[in-house]
Amino acid sequence: MAGEVCRGCDGRKFRAVADKLNVLRSVVEKACSRCSGSGEEPGPSKGGKRRFGSKQKKTDEELTVEQQADAFLAARGYSKGGR
Length: 83
Fold this sequence. Notes:
This protein is of the alpha+beta class. 13% of the residues lie in helices and 12% in strands. The chain has one helix and two strands; from the N terminus they run ββα. Strands 1-2 form a two-stranded antiparallel ribbon. The longest helix has 11 residues, at 65-75.
């Protein structure tokens, strides 16, 4: 893919961005963030999973009564499946 024209800016090396909420309808030219101003399509990224911190569990005050009961039973080995 490297060497092709950038899809974001069509090879112009900048993007025309309309004013926020199109209030003034003025067009601002900003450097293309996809190709970093080179005008060429970037190659594929390495990819991989993004790892974020674990979600914090809700406190008892934030849970509904049903969710509190499910959490209580799950902690003691009883689940909704009845196993």
